[in-house]
Amino acid sequence: QRSKQEAHDANEVFYTEGSEELKAARIWIMNYSLPKSRGRVRETKRKQVELSEYIARKESRIKENEVRDKAQAGGQALVVGEEDTRMDEDSTVEQEHNTYIDRAGKYRNMDLACSQVGDVRPISGCHFSPDAQMLATCSWSGLAKIWSVPDCTEKFTLFGHAERLTDVKFHPSFKSAAIGSTEGDTVACATASVDKTVKLWNGNSFKEMHTLQGHAARVCRINFHPSGRFLGTTSFDKTWRLWDLETQQELLCQEGHARQLYSIAFQPDGALVASVGLDALCRIWDLRTGRSIMALQGHVKQVLGVDFSPCGIKVATGSDDNTIRLWDLRRRKAYYTMPAHPKMISSVRYSDCGDFLFSGSYDRSAKVWNLRNHTSIKTLAGHDEKVMCVDVAPGGHYIASASYDRTFKLWAPGTAF
Fold first, then answer.
1. pTM over 0.85, yes/no
2. What is the pLDDT of residue 64?
3. Nearest to residue 29, comparing CAs of 277, 200, 251?
4. How far apart (Å, rounded) are the C-alpha atoms in residues 358 and 368?
5. DSSP 259
C-alpha cells in the first residue's frame, strides 16, 4: 500500500499558484502567439500544395519527354503541346531552391572579415542587432561593448555589473537609427552576470535603465521573447525566470531541472520556450499554460546550446557529449544526431531560413551545417582558444564568434569585401 502511495505521489502533477500578473501575461502571450501560429500553419500548407503541384508537373513533363523520345526513335511524327519553358521560372519551389543554393554557396565562401581584441578577459557572448548594423559582446571583465558592423569599431561600453558577464542580447525591436533620439525610453539590450542580476540598457544612449534581481545564483544565458515584452533568464539556482519588461517585475520562477540551467530559447510564435542545462535534458514549456509539455532526452552530458528553428517545430541542442541533436516536436524525439565537434559544443544557432545551423565549440572552431543533408559545409577556424558563443546576423550576411582568447571574429562571404 505504501509503495502504491509513493508511486501516486511521484506521478502527481504539482501546481504552484501564480499571480494575477502572470495570468494576464499568459493570456497576452496566447493572443500574441495564436495568429502567428495560424499564419505559420497556413504558410506550411501552401508550400505543401505548391510542392505537390510542382512534382505533378515535373512528372507530367518527364512522361511527355519519354513519349517524344520513343516517337522520334520510331521515326513517327508526333505532335505534342508546346513546352512550358516558363514553368520553372515562375515556380515558388524553384525560387526557394535557388535561394537555398545561393545561400549554401555564400556560406561555403565564408572567410575572416575582421578580428578584434574585444577585452582584456575572455569574451563570453556576442549578439547581432536586428538590423545587423551592430554587434554586442560581453566579457569576464564585467563590461559589455557595442561594435559597428562590419568595421568592428567600438561605439559604446556598458559598465555596471559587479562580476563577470555571461551573456548579452539585443532587444528584438532595437534600431541603430534610434541612437541619440530623445523620443521615449526603450530597451536596447540586456546583459546577464555572475553577480545574479540582469541589467537593461537604454536604446537612445546605452545607459543603464533597470536591474532585474531575483536569482539566487549566477545568471547564465538570457533571451528576449519574440514580442520584446518579456525576458527569459536561466541560472545556476536550477530555475529559469520570466520578466515583464514593462513593469520590470518577475512573473514566473520555474523549476523543473535537476541541475543548473544554462540556456533558453523562445519559439518564433512566442508560445513555447526551451530550457537546457547541466542535467543533459531539454525541456519544452508552454507559456500559455505553464506546463512542461515534453522532456527531450538523449544527450549523455550537459547541454549548453539550444535554439528553435524558424518553422517553430524543430529544436537544435548542442552538448558536452560533442553532438548536436535535431528534435522534431511533433514526434517528440530526435530525428538526427550529428557528431559535430571533437570537444564540447557551446552554442548553436539556426539561420533565418532554417536550412542551415551554426555551432561553436571548445575545439576552437565554429562550423556551418547544411541541414538538408546534415553535413558540414564550412569550418571557421582561427581562434587560439575555445569558442564561447556564435551568432549569425539577420539575412545571414555575417557570422560572429566570441572566444576565450579575448577576441571576437566577424566572418563574411569572400566576395563581400
1. yes
2. 80
3. 251
4. 5
5. S
